[in-house]
Amino acid sequence: MNTLIAILGLLSALLFFYLLRFKASSKQTNRSNRPKWSKYIPYKDEERGSQSDDADFPDK
Amino acid sequence: MSRHQALDTFGRSGNPIIRSSAFQDKATSGDRMSLEGAVNKTGILLFLTVLSASLSWNFQGPLMSLLSSVGIFVGVISAIATFGFYFFFIGWIVNPRPHLAPKTGPIYAVGMGFMIGMISQQAEAMFPGIVIQAVSLTFFVAASLLLAYKTGIIKPTQNFVLMIFAATLGIFLTYLSSFIFSLFTGSSFSIFTDTGWMGIGISLFVVAIAALNLVLDFDIIEQADEQGAPKYMEWFGAMALMATLIWLYIEILRLLMKLRSR
User: Fold this and answer.
1) Is the dihedral of CA B168, A26, B235, B27 positive or negative?
2) In the beta sheet, which residues pair with residue B94?
3) CB–CB of B132 and A16 under 8 A?
4) What is the ipTM of this complex?
5) pTM of the prediction?
6) pLDDT digit string (tens) for B107-153?
7) From the CA of B7, how many Å to the nearest CA of chain A?
8) Which of A52, B57, B64, B197 could disulfide-link B117, Cβ–Cβ 3.0 to 4.6 Å?
9) Among partner residues B3, B96, B144, which is closest to A42 by beta-carbon distance?
10) Coil, strand, or helix at residue B230?
11) Could you tell me if B3 and A56 are in contact, meaning their C-beta atoms sit under 8 angstroms apart?
């Protein structure tokens, strides 16, 4: 019985790592009511930090 | 001409070619996260967890107990530093810092591995074969939910996130209260140890919430990839996924122990 469960677990693990590589269907991604994670996880701000959108002219 | 003189003379440029972010986006396009990268990082973290778990499983003794305690403590600190710490009515006590994930992710995985090894070894001694059942069930649940997410059967919305977030926070506060209670009385809340239908029902509820947290992790990874998030978000996504998988495994193990001790 435990061998069968172990095989099921191994197959599930393989399926999990296989599916994780694919993009979600458009039914999932093209929705207006998706949560906006960038609002909670500040990766945009961290990266751009204090940089401005203006060209950087070095002082002479 | 200095930067400030130039800005005074020409004003702020709206030309996307002159804007520095346009250059930056081009220069760093190879440093964007990908789903493939997130999967690889999840694999690395899982490997580290299994490695440290097998160490604490196989080598018992005072040195390993000390190493495990330090590992768990450092793991928890790493998780708080990366994911932040939120409290009802107060807000973020520690802000999330996803850019730390490449360093804290492996530390977290190793630390939690020590804890899992210890718990699993004790559970296996009491109920032989229970660990393989819990591991298999964890991956079965994770794969099923991933399939449901990818195909669009489960669609996380803002309300869904709030509901899961509130339930998760409630569970952790109950665990924390139980832990503090046990420091003074020597025993935790009976609802966690109860093997009756009430205890099993609560365990089932916690397993369901832990499993639904996986859906949020999938959505974080998917959205970060769509938006071209920085490379370190691969580690952040992988760490979030590992944290939920570890929690789910522990809750499934606890549920199986309750069922087997009836």
Assistant:
1) negative
2) B85
3) no
4) 0.81
5) 0.83
6) 999 999 999 999 999 999 999 999 999 999 999 999 999 999 999 99
7) 9
8) B57
9) B96
10) strand
11) yes
- Partner residue facing A55 (CB), from B2, B19, B229: B19
Nearest to B210 by CA among B248, B160, B176: B248
**pLDDT over threshold 90, residue B187:** no
DSSP H helices, chain B, are: 3-10, 20-27, 35-58, 62-83, 101-126, 130-150, 158-185, 190-193, 197-226, 232-260
Distance from CA of A41 to the nearest CA of B (A): 7
**In this complex, do A23 and B35 lie within 8 Å of one another by their Cβ atoms?**
yes
DSSP designation for B32: B
Q: Looking at CA atoms only, how far is residue B160 from chain A in angstroms?
A: 9
Q: Are the C-beta atoms of B142 and B245 separated by less than 8 Å?
A: yes
Question: CA dist B256 to B19, B130, B242, Å?
Answer: 58, 7, 21
Six-digit token string for B205: 């509820």
Residue numbers in B near A58 (CB within 8 A): 3
Please name the residues in contact with B36: beta carbons below 8 A apart, sequence gap of 6 or more.
A21
CB contact under 8 A, B7 and A54: yes
Model pLDDT for residues B90-103, shown as the tens digit of each residue = 878 888 889 999 99
Average pLDDT over residues B46-53: 96
Q: Which residues of B touch A12 (CB under 8 A)?
A: 136, 139-140, 142-144
| pLDDT value at residue A49 | 46
Distance from CA of A49 to the nearest CA of B (A): 11
- State residue B15 phi and psi, 5-degree precision: -70, 120
Q: A46 to chain B: which residues are within 8 Å by CB?
A: 97-99, 230
